[in-house]
Design brief:
alpha+beta; 5 helices; 6% strand; disordered N terminus; binds zinc ion
């Protein structure tokens, strides 16, 4: 327990007036602010809400796509039937014209034509029946699509509002971040290089906090209490000496 927590190396000393350590604490506070702002930016409630709404919209869009595909298949069938009906109608019309104009035709030819006309008429009725079925099957799909859109519309509006709120919140944080980063750069320039290097090494290892305050007898880096002897020792260090918390290893600055 001698001087384990004390670094008397001149290169990382405080410089004698305590100012370097104050600058270091200012730097730590700004780094903490930057981390908190980044954390807030990553966890904005608007983003969470938007993710939820977008997931619902994606599910609806997939149902819409499915219904639209079913409707398209029925529309294609209907079109195909209409084309077949048109061909039959034309063929029957031509036959009927020939029959009416066929004064010189034999009875057998007329009979054959009449049979075909009847056959075409039956076939057309069949196809018309199928077309009707296809059209009727489209009605519930139209209703389904309308219902899906009815559910999607308020969600789309909600997503739009959330997107705008999210952008505004992000901008606000980005402004604060830019300001904090600028102040951080200025604060870092005031800390001597060796001390700054040591701080950065500790910060990288200790969840973003490389320097902590000794408040009464507790370290605000690890929130543990130091023994009264250790507190006494640190508080009586000459101004040029830098102490570290014996529990978490952070640079400890008495305040
Ligand atoms: Zn500590």
């Amino acid at each position: 327990m001698s001087d384990g927590g004390v670094v008397s190396d001149e290169a990382v000393s405080d410089g004698g007036d305590g100012g370097d350590l104050e600058h270091l604490l200012a730097l730590q506070d700004l780094d903490t602010s930057v981390t908190q702002l980044q954390h807030r930016r990553d966890g904005l409630p608007e983003a969470l809400g938007l993710t939820g709404v977008e997931a619902q919209l994606r599910a609806l869009a997939s149902e819409q796509a499915d219904a639209t595909a079913r409707r398209a298949a029925l529309t294609a069938t209907q079109k195909e039937l209409e084309e077949q009906i048109a061909v039959i109608t034309e063929r029957r019309g031509a036959l009927e014209q020939r029959m009416y104009a066929a004064t010189g035709s034999s009875g057998r030819d007329l009979q054959a034509m009449s049979d075909e006309v009847r056959h075409l008429t039956d076939r057309r009725s069949e196809l018309e029946e199928q077309e009707l079925v296809s059209m009727m099957e489209q009605d519930p799909i139209e209703a389904e699509l309308a219902a899906l859109q009815e559910r999607a519309t308020p969600l789309e509006q909600e997503a739009q509002v959330l997107r705008a709120q999210l952008t505004a919140a992000q901008h606000e944080i980005d402004d604060a971040l830019a300001e904090a980063i600028e102040a951080r750069t200025a604060a870092a320039a005031r800390v001597p290089t060796a001390l700054a290097d040591r701080y950065e090494t500790l910060r990288a290892r200790l969840k973003g906090t490389g320097a902590a305050r000794l408040i009464k007898s507790h370290c605000d880096g690890c929130h543990l209490e130091l023994s009264s002897a250790e507190v006494e020792r640190i508080r009586s260090l000459p101004p040029g000496e830098i102490a570290t918390c014996e529990q978490c290893g952070r640079i400890l600055v008495p305040v």
